[in-house]
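Exercise: predict the structure of this protein bound to calcium ion.
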Amino acid sequence: MTPRKSLIMATMLLSGTFAPLLMAQTNSAYDSQFIEWPTYNGNDLELTVDNSGTHFKLWSPKAKEAEVKLYDNGHTGEAFKVLPMTFDASTGIWSASVPEKLYGKFYTFRINQDGKWLKETPGVWAKAVGVNGNRAAIIDFAQTNPEGWATDKGPEVKNFSDVIVYEMHHRDMSMHPSSGIANKGKFLALTEQGTTSPQGLTTGIDHLKELGVTHVHILPSYDYNSVDEMNLQNNTYNWGYDPLNYNAPEGSYSTNPSDPKARVREMKEMIKALHDAGIGVIMDVVYNHTAENDNSNFELTAPGYYHRHWDDGRYSDASGCGNETASDLKQMRDYIVNSTKYWADEYHVDGFRFDLMAIHDTETMNEVAAELKKINPSIFVYGEGWTAGDSPLQPERRALKENVSKMTDIAVFSDDIRDAVKGHYTDASDRGFATGKPGLEETVKIGIVAATDHPQVNYKKGNNSKFPYAKSPEMIVNYVSCHDDLCLTDKLRKSMAGEPEKNMIEAAKLAQTIVFTSQGTPFMFAGEEVFRDKQGVHNSYNSPDSINAIDWSNKAKYKDLFNYYKGLIELRKSHPAFRMTTAADIAKNLKFDKIDSSKTPNLISYSLLNHANGDEWEEIKVVFNGSDKPQTVDIKKGNWLIVATDGLISPNGGLGRLEGGKQTVAPYSALILARP
Ligand code: CA
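Solution:
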């Protein structure tokens, strides 16, 4: 999410003790006025078209008057008709209907609040929009479905620890000339088969298949505010954490933002192509704030209601972006739940990543997960278990990392493993366990056991968290980098300045080996498998493509690194021992070797025992050496297969055999052995 003004503050909030439980059900005196408002949870909000005509229903309990304006065009021209709306006080709904099916037309709402007509708005439930999302569009969704859509389905997920997430931005993946992709920066980029780099290596969807990830996590793809869809020749770039219309796709990713059907159809085509390749699609969703305050669609339809405020009526700002939404109020909670259900139903989306999830309350997140499970049990929901500023929402109600065990079927990112492995995100030059900084061993171990209760992990020595906050490994997403902050390559270049690039590549391999062998769900940032960088720009949310686009010529240049990632992913997929599903299993089957970190820092060694989680291997030995010197470990006698050593990996243990005894582990490297 961007911009990260207050993450240090957020971290302080996380580690602080919780305020005493407050009795009030709302968060401020100001917001208590909204509790009594009537609510409406029908699925016919704002627009429906059926054989009796076109029907509009706007929720706005305190408006004095409301009207619908009908247009021929999505952007210009006067309304050809204005429909007055009638009010139902019991639901807060304003209604209007016409007997025709108005396919191809556009509409806005306008309300009179306290004697003043507010600006026009497409409402909060526009599912199709004109260019730049200012007017809602009336389209026939049946006409947007690609061939075979009725039977389209994402991959079945038995356990969330089986998921391997690849986080990508549409432009990063395809804009660079080396992508060989025709539809650069578009949803359609991932529908192109057979694309290659100048060196003839696969790119695009074929690259994803070759790498072996199970899910792509697409950065915000709903209609966002900051890119002018009428000036796409400017090639403006944005991550998209500035929501405008939550229920329509972003226009700049379509081949024609002025055609409301194009963005819908093309996004579905992308999802269909990924599903056909066996890959699931996770959407990054940002219900926690809106791009605008008073001019947001929320404020223009029901002023005051959807955002939180301090006692004096000022917008509160836990997002660091000017406001925060009020998931604890029923109409907003229902909105989040229904919006995710809509994406799952209409677009067959396989998961949701909640930005600044701790702005939402745990009750809302539980309802989201429970409702989505009814649609598709394979849907994976996870989020950032922190805020970017203080919120009126009581800490014990927030969907914080520390509160993840109060939730069901929700996972959180582990900033523990992220900061411990590669160094802290706030200090570019800070090193981590994998780059030779001592004292982080226990925090890395918290990551390895997915923040579950383990008899050999001392949480008091943890850097970020002080207690086993996850009841199950399926509550944890492990990673070393994402779109935020320095990407792994840039972090290694800054923190290992002066060392040869070879060392950085070995450290990259080690860092990801820690993530991909740890319990929980692994997550990686697109392009790191080809050593992509962002030229040292940490907050590249609006940097040009020259900073953000992945240069696919890197795939040939860093072939060895790519093959290592591919091997790591294959190892994880073929060995369930890395994907245990309960805390009890981890406590029983994962055993750390005794190492005195004060004498031999940057060394961790553990075994996965007892054919863990049904693994064909009786024991897997995993050793990490994060120091810049070789270190020695004592491996018990046995007939061991070598799975990984000195920057090489063979998922089937094809790197030779050894019989135990003293083994040297190269600097910045992992040793993985298996005893069948
Ligand atoms: Ca837009």
